[in-house]
Amino acid sequence: MENKELKIKHLIALRTNYFSMIMLISGGVAGLFFGDFLNIKTLILIAAGTYFDCLFIMKFLYTSAKIEKLTEE
């Protein structure tokens, strides 16, 4: 029982970190749209930011599902 509780605590901390990364990357990508410059470097950064944002959203959802599965058992 103690191992299960510890695993859930670690997953909750991981989910919190994923959420922080999602907010950070989303803010950075949104900030690029407000700049008055548009060049190839900006487009590459927007593409990379969008990719990593989607990646962390998928990891966040997977971790949430894993937490729900462990709490139902």
Tell me how many strands there are.
Answer: 0
Strand content bin: under 5%
Helix content range of the residues, please? over 70%
Overall average pLDDT = 93
Query: The biggest beta sheet, please?
Result: none
Q: Which segments are poorly predicted (pLDDT under 50) over 5 or more consecutive residues?
A: none
Order of helices and strands: HH
N-to-C terminal Cα separation, in Å? Answer: 11 Å
- Multimeric state of these chains? single chain
Helix and strand content put the structural class at mainly alpha
Count of helical regions: 2
Evaluate the radius of gyration.
17 Å
Q: What's the overall geometry?
A: rod-shaped
Protein architecture, described:
The protein has 73 residues and is mainly alpha-helical. The chain contains 2 helices and no strands. The protein is rod-shaped, with a radius of gyration of 17 Å. The mean pLDDT is 93.
Helix and strand layout, with pairings?
Elements: H1 2-34, H2 40-72
Helix pairs in contact: 1-2
Describe this protein with a few key phrases:
2 helices, rod-shaped, about 70 residues, mainly alpha, about 90% helix
